């Protein structure tokens, strides 16, 4: 009896989860229809991870649990073991997954919509994981600028980022530094690609048109439910470390944003406006972090 009740509750919770997914996907599609996402298709295709064996198409977003989810997907395939480290990730990814290069937009559309017996089965689970853009930006700053001794990503990209945006790597964040960052990014778009772009940029209109799931990075229960939906909870859950755990980041982010004036915060809000519209986030709680904030 207790087992039956538990199964009924789990089914009910999964129903709530799937209903929330439908609402989010509808929001994304409506926002895209209004022209929120205006980026190149090549960039979007470059970021996709296609796993036919697992029936998964995943768009990893920088600083939105992308490494954790990539490891989870590799675990599901038996390609990741406790002996592996983050230093192995790039090589394993290149070996296991092929980048979707060489496809035109029309070919992608044809594969998803006109061949349901083939491609639709291969890629039933098309998803991305999202995070509040300001938390994502702070996470990027702390991990890639402040934590200069972290070897993995810093060796690949961090040093170049540091040379682009600051003279000394050990100084704390300052208003001047953020102003310089925004000015240089506006003057040279190639610089900006190294940093935390809005979600809409790496995702692009190609993927958002076909998306089926939008998972919120900071909701641990939701991550577990999606793994259950993929029939992979047991495969990933055996890891000793919880890949989706971590301290709340809102307070940490606020401590950084409190050092900026409201004018600069509004500039950042404008920059990440596509994310707010696509996924229903709001900048209000971070605008309040500024010492200059005045209640409207």
TrEMBL record:
<keyword id="KW-0808">Transferase</keyword>
<keyword id="KW-1133">Transmembrane helix</keyword>
<dbReference type="Pfam" id="PF03567">
    <property type="entry name" value="Sulfotransfer_2"/>
</dbReference>
<protein>
    <recommendedName>
        <fullName>Carbohydrate sulfotransferase</fullName>
        <ecNumber>2.8.2.-</ecNumber>
    </recommendedName>
</protein>
<dbReference type="InterPro" id="IPR018011">
    <property type="entry name" value="Carb_sulfotrans_8-10"/>
</dbReference>
<dbReference type="InterPro" id="IPR005331">
    <property type="entry name" value="Sulfotransferase"/>
</dbReference>
<keyword id="KW-0472">Membrane</keyword>
<keyword id="KW-0812">Transmembrane</keyword>
<dbReference type="GO" id="GO:0016051">
    <property type="term" value="P:carbohydrate biosynthetic process"/>
</dbReference>
<keyword id="KW-0325">Glycoprotein</keyword>
<keyword id="KW-0119">Carbohydrate metabolism</keyword>
<keyword id="KW-0333">Golgi apparatus</keyword>
<comment type="similarity">
    <text>Belongs to the sulfotransferase 2 family.</text>
</comment>
<keyword id="KW-0735">Signal-anchor</keyword>
<dbReference type="GO" id="GO:0000139">
    <property type="term" value="C:Golgi membrane"/>
</dbReference>
<dbReference type="GO" id="GO:0008146">
    <property type="term" value="F:sulfotransferase activity"/>
</dbReference>
